[in-house]
Design a protein that fits this description.
The protein has ten helices and eight strands. It is α+β, with helices and mostly antiparallel strands. The protein has a four-stranded antiparallel sheet with strand order 5-6-8-7, with helices on both faces.
Length: about 300
């Protein structure tokens, strides 16, 4: 009898111990469930604090600001340009007094120096921000939005253009309802001395106007402007060239410096020629190819 009692007592103690242990395990599991695991992805304060650089606004400022007669800032670009200038300053490429949100010639020079530090040369180191160089400059300092890319080089009418320019020309043709034939393409350094280097890089074309009436030439220039070109009808009285339409794709990241200057002049109401005369083309609201795409 005493043995049976002892057995029951031992069994009771074992059951009690099991219950206690079960409760402890359950409590630990509940506590673990209530606590977020250590690997949960929570944005760090540092990452959240990084400024955002709008590439479209930055590239536009780099084309317009150097051509301004004053220090007026390009609308919508100040914060992005400031972030870029601060990153250049941190690399000892830009003095603090030029960190002002204005992408003028001093900032262009500093950015070109940064591009050369990456191993870029020629047109790839002319101070116009590209996606790869902006990404490198922004590491740990800013993130990029609204990126622009010229795209691969393709053939059109026997000339070389980049993919972005080709798409713009195709859309202008759709608006006009007829094909546009080129007289000169892009990436053509030294190909035509009268072009003053504007065709050395990407984004620039000359459109053949043989057989077009004056009104048709104007309509073509208007359509090209509508899709994001700085475009003008050129005539023999302006230089040693035949009638044609000269068009530079605004914000093409492969633009030669001379073409960048023409884009800046276009935004400032000028004709893109050395005489800096008033714009003689059809006046419409100026927009880039990216801005056009967002509304069509």
């Amino acid at each position: 009898m005493a043995s049976a009692t002892k057995t029951r007592t031992t069994a009771t103690r074992l059951l009690t111990a099991v219950a206690v242990l079960s409760g402890l395990v359950l409590s630990a599991a509940q506590a673990h469930a209530a606590t977020p695991p250590s690997h949960t992805e929570v944005p760090s304060a540092t990452a959240a604090a990084l400024p955002v650089v709008d590439m479209e606004a930055t590239v536009l400022a780099a084309q317009i600001d150097p051509r301004r007669p004053d220090s007026t800032l390009t609308p919508g670009a100040k914060d992005s340009v400031l972030a870029v200038e601060r990153a250049l300053q941190a690399r000892n490429l830009l003095d603090a007094r030029w960190v002002d949100g204005y992408f003028g010639t001093t900032t262009i020079t500093a950015y070109a120096a940064f591009q050369r530090s990456l191993g870029y040369t020629g047109l790839d180191a002319n101070g116009l921000p590209g996606s790869s160089s902006l990404t490198a400059l922004g590491q740990g300092r800013f993130t990029l939005t609204h990126q622009i890319a010229a795209g691969a080089r393709v053939q059109r009418d026997g000339y070389t253009v980049d993919t972005r320019t080709q798409k713009m020309l195709t859309e202008a043709e759709r608006l006009l309802g007829f094909h546009l034939t080129l007289d000169q393409g892009s990436y053509n350094p030294g190909g035509d001395p009268t072009s003053a280097g504007t065709h050395d890089g990407g984004g620039v074309v000359d459109v053949n106007v043989d057989g077009m009436s004056s009104s048709t030439r104007t309509a073509v220039a208007r359509a090209l402007r509508q899709v994001g070109f700085a475009a003008w009808v050129r005539n023999p009285s302006q230089g040693d060239w035949p009638w044609h339409i000269h068009a530079a794709a605004i914000s093409d990241t492969d633009l030669a410096t001379q073409a960048q200057n023409q884009v800046g002049d276009y935004y400032l109401g000028l004709n893109g020629l050395a005489n800096h005369a008033a714009d003689d083309g059809p006046r419409i609201p100026i927009q880039t190819w990216e801005e056009y795409q967002r509304t069509h």
